[in-house]
Fold these 4 entries.
Entry 1:
Amino acid sequence: MLKSLLLGLSRMPAVKAGVVAFPLTKRVVDRFVAGETLDDCLRVTHALAGRGLLATIDYLGEDTTTAAQADRVTDTYVELLDRLAAEGLTDRVEVSIKLSALGSMLKGGYEVALDNARVICAQAERVGTTVTVDAEDHTSTDATLRTVQTLREQYPWVAVVLQSMLYRTASDCTKQTGEGNRVRLCKGAYSEPSEVAHRAKSAVDRNYRRCATILLQGKGRPLFATHDDAMTGHALAEVARLGRDPDSFELQMLLGIRSGEQARLAGLGHTVRVYVPFGTDWYAYFMRRLAERPANVVFLLRALVERPQHRKVQSGF
Ligand SMILES: Cc1cc2nc3c(=O)[nH]c(=O)nc-3n(C[C@H](O)[C@H](O)[C@H](O)COP(=O)(O)OP(=O)(O)OC[C@H]3O[C@@H](n4cnc5c(N)ncnc54)[C@H](O)[C@@H]3O)c2cc1C
């Protein structure tokens, strides 16, 4: 109920204006977002690297409404990739892109987004890193899969994201088991109708386990994006059962969520990658993080009523 409400609000411009303008919201946002500038984001990325964690950086923004805006997002990624190269981070840091930020909602939509994604992939290839194409809501799944397929003709290292909440995903996973395919498996962060998606957590989790096994039985590189111990536990048990090379998969989590667990898993020798969002357009991303966990709403409300000097600094979930 609360989850649906927050996901609904994440699409409402009027609410966005109020939330973004409210100064105290920022304190909670800082927990999930690396900052507004490239420098902020690189500082956080260096700190993660110092703790043995890899990163995938997302330049926030998913409501691109003009071609100029899509170009600006593309240029920012190109600049980001240059900076990663200059700072010697490209062996540990890649980028995540959203096709909606690159223009998929404009006239000519996916062609525009594909052209912009190609520019980013070319730059990633030049500096020696990779790109993941994020999954958005189910109405974009087919077009996103097609776009990734096209990009992979030239850049086979482009990763796709599949969401276990969707009924179709086991079948999509089966199609993604080819040699070297990088596939991020997550539960799905969008509000979806029951015609296309499991609504019960138990069903989403069951499908996650099933999809994880399908990917691990294949020849690709699964990227398990979850903070759920049961999902990570299943993936690791299947890795052992199937005799998979420990370097042939990744565990991924979001910045600010279960930071201690990220470090613990990296300390055990697993490859752990943290999703690092940055930029000023944090509203929709932030609302989805609130929707995932009611306790985050309590944390927000507490920040709104506490005086700044009394606020306790928390290091993530
Ligand atoms: C690296 C990465 C990339 C992702 N990319 C995409 C994408 O491209 N498209 C997409 O739709 N979704 C994406 N997601 C989001 C994902 O779909 C889920 O919405 C999100 O990860 C919560 O699901 P969960 O697997 O952590 O399990 P849940 O069952 O939601 O949570 C398990 C436990 O994790 C902790 N937890 C989970 N979320 C939070 C939170 N927000 N705040 C605090 N604690 C939390 C809690 O302890 C919770 O009990 C991504 C997630 C990750 C980690």
Entry 2:
Amino acid sequence: MSERAGVLIVGGGIIGTALAWALAERGLRDVLVVDLDLAGVYASSELNAGGARATWWQPVNVEACRLTLDFFRRHAGEFGFRERGYLWLYEEAALFATAREKRALQNAANLGVELLTPAEVRARFPLLDRGLEALVGATFSPRDGLVNPNAVRAWFRREARERGVVFRDRDYVMGVKTERVAGRGGSLRRVAAVDVVRVKRDGAGDPSGVLREILTTHRVPTSAIAGEERIECDVVVNCLGAWSALLLAKLGVPDLTEPVRRQISLVDVHREDLAPGVSLDALGMIVLASGLYFHPEGPHVLAGYSTPGEAPGYDFDYDGSDFFESEIWPRLAARASSFERCGHVRGWAGLYDVTPDRSGIAGAVGGFANLFEAHSFTGRGVMQSYGIARAMAALVATGRFEEVDLAPLSRERFTDPARWVEEDLHI
Ligand SMILES: Cc1cc2nc3c(=O)[nH]c(=O)nc-3n(C[C@H](O)[C@H](O)[C@H](O)COP(=O)(O)OP(=O)(O)OC[C@H]3O[C@@H](n4cnc5c(N)ncnc54)[C@H](O)[C@@H]3O)c2cc1C
């Protein structure tokens, strides 16, 4: 059996879903999204920290995030967007010097980023009553904040469906069929069809571990196969996040990205332990430039730490209380006496798809007549979702970027280190 799609989006995480919406919003009526698991049990879009900031070091990242944050602001109630700011604490003079220099770019985009001395940090953030002598300075970006990423994705999906987009769940893309066509500069390849395996349902979540097995081994167990199908298409967009390189490999496109595990702990803070005058309620994201970040999350605190040298791989194992006790608690307690007795609630692990310069990849794939891509947004996919989707929809529909020029994010940049889009404020 075979099906047809005008635009086939492979991967229904926040990026693929936002793109489907943006295409439908432009009037495209034949958009199909396929995903192994639309609930996204292992998708980064469901496992992230909900931070949203436009304060980056590269204009294209600032712009894509700025547009996205404006969009979040317009739907603040629905998306749980809280404009509470990002506070960055620096211990390294060289890094802080660059942060100061990048303020010009950020403030040209009206982000209002302030420089704070350690004494000002202490006065404005009474929670942070320890380790201030180690700081060389801080920045505070008041227009950044926190968002509920699941609500954002649900909105994109609902609005896309209302505009006619079809989402197919339990479709695992296994193969790609290409053909040669004449292009302007000579012969090009064209993706004619994508082959999917229909995977059986075993209830909500992943009770038998089949989804996890498929997403970590990239094979579908025979017992889980419900059928196979070929989907013919005019255009394909690779929105597979940390799995994007697997599709590219099937197409013979060399790729430099790596899936890397990132862990998050939920932390229990006893309200009676809060130092006098300290409240967690109004806080946004607090980041130690050395790798720890945290923010209030319902009754708890959500804290993540990017372990340096984490080996690449499709690893979803959360290291549990060991991770909390060795990486999270000491760093929190070193900054705030209120965290001295905090406890571990639970946590999880998800994947960053990391590029050599830590910026995402978006655009048309060279050598192909109809293949596009938008993936590998490391720790930035939610906060760029709207900007990337709008720009990519314009590219797919008209051949040109509009609103934000994503040309710097083309994969061609990796052929020349001078064109890399380096981001160092990356956690
Ligand atoms: C711990 C952590 C914290 C983060 N914190 C933040 C943050 O604070 N702010 C922020 O903006 N970003 C953050 N991120 C990054 C953000 O979550 C990602 O950049 C974003 O979710 C990527 O979305 P995506 O749609 O590209 O990929 P995903 O959401 O991973 O979607 C990819 C989809 O592809 C599907 N799939 C895979 N292979 C196949 C196949 N062969 N066939 C069919 N379907 C397939 C999967 O089921 C999945 O649904 C964080 C990420 C992690 C892991």
Entry 3:
Amino acid sequence: MSFESAALSQPYTWNMSASLIPPVHPLALSLAFTVALLLSLACKFWLTSRQVRHVARHRDAVPDAFAGTVPLSAHQKAADYTVARSRFGLLSLAFNTVVLLGWTLLGGLDSLNSAVLDATIGWGGMAYQLALLVAFSVIGALLDLPWELYNTFRIEQRFGFNKMTWKLYVADSLKGLAVGAIIGLPIAALILWLMGAAGTYWWLWAWGAWMGFNLLILVLYPTVIAPLFNKFEPLPDEGLKARVEGLMQRCGFAAKGLFVMDGSRRSAHGNAYFTGFGPAKRVVFFDTLLERLNGPEVEAVLAHELGHFKHKHVLKRMVTMFAISLAGFALLGWLSAQTGFYLAFSVRPNMAAPNDALALLLFMLVVPVFAFFFTPLASRMSRKDEFQADAYACAQASGADLAAALLKLHEDNAGTLTPDPVYARFYYSHPPASERLAALQNQP
Ligand SMILES: [Zn+2]
């Protein structure tokens, strides 16, 4: 009996009713994956080397539009920071590609699965599957660790951005692990259970569960999870508070609170965000942001964030995310019932145990390779939203203050003023500073 027909005779996950669509041919799928992977690699290397060359070529002079506002030393620091991060990105890309090939075509996931199956004999289908997910995540985290450490304690440190101590790093990691387990394991168990028990249309149920989970996180993140990692204090500056409340009233927003977060514990990068939905909305300023910007500039930055809400960008992004995950679950529903899906990536489906965890892992490994090609589309949509939010900020606060704030934040984050245009078109979720400031100047 051939391997495929043996698997198909098992009652576990093989669903023959979905046979209207032609089955997945393993060789065709591994070929498509290989081609997509090579193409995306070539694309990433080409774009990043363009970026490095462009930034290095413009290192010696501040662009005309910024002469007088940006000192040469800041411009050169931004160039060096961009180049260092890009080079590091290419190295980690090469490493991650090897790891991905190891998991898939070279049979790594299959070997891990055999080991976990052996170790969990007698545990039952669910415990085996959760053990597989945990083992995979732990190995993945260990492989990532040196890269993360190098990024934080070498690159960020060298440019003066890292404020994290080793002690804080370890504490963060342990807390992150605990939160991940407490949140991740139940939702993983629920989805695995639905995959096994909810019949042909399990993916619809699983999608519903996933959406519910996401909404729950949206509520829990600002109120329960974020406070585990940072201190949030009510905005103490009465003058600024009155200014911000005035703006929110003008724009028709009711926030539950204005908070300052001690972002400076970890990083010198500044930020502000608006979080939650319904009556649980809150505004969070990083202390690093408040240190750098004056009152009118803070107001302009917040007006930009409110613009995202007024133009329904937040809702739009949520609906898009819901639709994409529905398509994703439907695709997973189809693929997970196909022997060819597993065989394409050198995984032998289980004969006597459910294959749902295997399908989930393979899906999460493989889909990003194809999804990469949608990056420019997502970036473009995001940049359009940013222009709209800027225009809103100009109408509700001062465009000149927003421009001043953007320049300061740009300098503090060592963002380059001279990105490669093609690279920026492809990756940038925010318009390059020159385009943004030009648009601000053209506002009425
Ligand atoms: Zn924005």
Entry 4:
Amino acid sequence: MRVGMGHDTHRLAEGRPLLLGGVRIEHARGLVGHSDADVVLHAVTDALLGAAGLGDIGDAFPDTDPAYRGCDSRVFLDATLARLEGAGWRVVNVDVTIFAQEPKLGPVKDRIRRHLAELLRLDAGAVNVKAKTGEGVGHIGRGEAIGCQAVALIEARE
Ligand SMILES: [Zn+2]
């Protein structure tokens, strides 16, 4: 068994869709990035790459590559799952904490959890999504950014 962690932060701006774990959340502002800036999928992808000893999302999918401009972050997750599978690994469970002052994620965290489980091809019980605010301080607390931490456990397939 191997464990990996991932962390990501993206800035919030008007005129962008807000995607968290592949779920579109109704909000006046969304996350800015080279891709669709889905901070949850980026953190989960990094956790999986970390667990398998495969570097980070920036190595695997450089943000200088025009192919990834505006790209759906599910592409990163799918490609990473394929690499893990190719190397003989399967995902055991994933735990995620999203840091957002707004919008309030309590009402949507279960939707994000179920969607993430689908993307990871896991039972919903093997995926956990927690939501925290920034306690009103720092870039997250001021509502300037949303952050995400993820931990993933993988094991060798029989
Ligand atoms: Zn990112």
